[in-house]
UniProtKB/TrEMBL annotation:
Protein name as annotated: Aspartate carbamoyltransferase
Family, per entry: Belongs to the aspartate/ornithine carbamoyltransferase superfamily. ATCase family.
Gene Ontology cellular component terms for the protein in this record: cytosol
InterPro entries for the chain: Asp/Orn_carbamoyltranf_P-bd (IPR006132), Asp/Orn_carbamoylTrfase (IPR006130), Asp/Orn_carbamoylTrfase_sf (IPR036901), Asp_carbamoyltransf (IPR002082), Asp_carbamoyltransf_Asp/Orn-bd (IPR006131)
Residue intervals of the Aspartate/ornithine carbamoyltransferase Asp/Orn-binding domain: 172-318
EC number: 2.1.3.2
Keyword Thylakoid recorded: no
A Pfam family matched in the record: OTCace_N
Positions annotated to bind L-aspartate: K100, R185, R240
Gene Ontology MF term list: amino acid binding; aspartate carbamoyltransferase activity
Function: Catalyzes the condensation of carbamoyl phosphate and aspartate to form carbamoyl aspartate and inorganic phosphate, the committed step in the de novo pyrimidine nucleotide biosynthesis pathway.
Gene of this entry: pyrB
Length: 337
């Protein structure tokens, strides 16, 4: 599997530029990202109703395929699909035939034989959702729920929705992403989204051992000193130390990391007074963030979680719409041939 296809959009967009899979933010232009944010905005109100349902995916079957653990992403995809009136199947990988040696391709063929319309895929291998999108039956949409170190596009979009709600837009914003960028699919997608949406500066604050080799080429500046890096920030995004992906000793100790890069009230006071604090979760209190900050007045961490439902409703409904439009176009071309 590879995540290096330079033109993923031949897979994720229809010929007239509609979403039909959602695999990566690479190559997606500002207009489409703004459409996703605007569509999500229109779904926020659905979550505030007594009956939290719209019929956009009625009769459709969405399969959640999580080959890695998840709390927020899996739950909010499930709620989003249910609020769109889809039937939802959560495949329990630990008790599925995958544990008896069935390959990913065979598992998918069997799920496709049950007339599934959409797979939401989380996988430890970078490129797994891309690989599935290449081979899946036409008409079935693939949504990336996080693949290896490669991308977590719905997380980045829910983060963008949260920033837009609190800051009104992206122009002039200084945003820092702090911590373990090396292992973070979230950071890669966030850097891409912030640049495309027009943030003034995307700043990475991290020790050299937690930075990818070509980090500046992603579209960011780098600061190794947290006190200098916090200056003038409008948004600070903390990352979890991804110990499950670390090979070898990249840090002297968690305690030392917290001393140098953990966000506490003292360091937050160095940013703009209205700087918001974000974290994709799961948070590790006392490792990358102090409880007083995580639960404090500048934290929007739980708003991010709530916005995950609206963003996932937007992406799922847009991808299904793209699949339907593409099928109709092909039928009409066959009719006129
Ligand atoms: N942010 C995020 O992906 O969290 P989960 O691993 O709980 O889904």
């Amino acid at each position: 599997m590879t995540a290096n296809d330079p033109s993923p959009n031949h897979l994720q967009l229809t010929r007239d530029g509609q979403l039909r899979h959602f695999l990566t933010l690479d190559g997606l232009e500002r207009g489409l990202l703004t459409d996703i944010l605007d569509t999500a905005d229109s779904f926020i109100e659905v979550g505030e109703r007594t009956i939290k349902k719209v019929p956009l995916l009625r009769g459709r079957t969405v399969v959640n395929l999580f080959f890695e653990s998840s709390t927020r992403t899996r739950s909010t995809f499930e709620l989003a699909a249910k609020r769109l009136s889809a039937d939802v199947l959560n495949l329990d990988i630990s008790t599925s035939a995958t544990s008896k040696g069935e390959s990913l391709s065979d598992t998918l063929l069997n799920l496709e034989a049950m007339a599934s319309d959409m797979f939401v895929v989380r996988h430890s291998q970078s490129g797994a959702p891309h690989f599935i999108a290449e081979s899946v039956t036409p008409g079935v949409a693939i949504i990336n729920a996080g693949d290896g170190r490669h991308a977590h596009p719905t997380q980045a979009m829910l983060d963008m929705l949260t920033i837009r709600q609190h800051k009104g837009g992206f122009g002039g914003l200084k945003v820092a992403i702090v911590g373990d960028v090396l292992h973070s699919r979230v950071a890669r997608s966030q850097i891409r989204a912030l640049n495309e949406l027009g943030a003034e500066e995307v700043r990475i604050i991290a020790p050299g051992t937690l930075l990818p080799r070509d980090v500046e080429s992603l579209g960011c500046t780098v600061e190794y000193d947290m006190a200098r890096g916090m200056k003038d920030l409008d948004v600070v995004i903390m990352l979890r130390l991804q110990k499950e992906r670390m090979e070898g000793a990249l840090l002297p100790s968690e305690r030392e990391f917290y001393r140098l890069y953990g966000l506490n009230q003292e360091k937050l006071a160095l940013a703009h007074p209205e700087c918001i604090v974000m974290h994709p979760g799961p948070i590790n209190r006392g490792v990358e963030i102090e409880s007083a900050v995580a639960d404090g007045p500048q934290s929007v961490i739980l708003n991010q979680v709530t916005n995950g439902i609206a963003i996932r409703m937007a992406v799922m409904s847009m991808a299904m719409g793209g699949q339907v439009a593409e099928r109709q176009q092909k039928q009409s071309e066959r009719g006129t041939a």
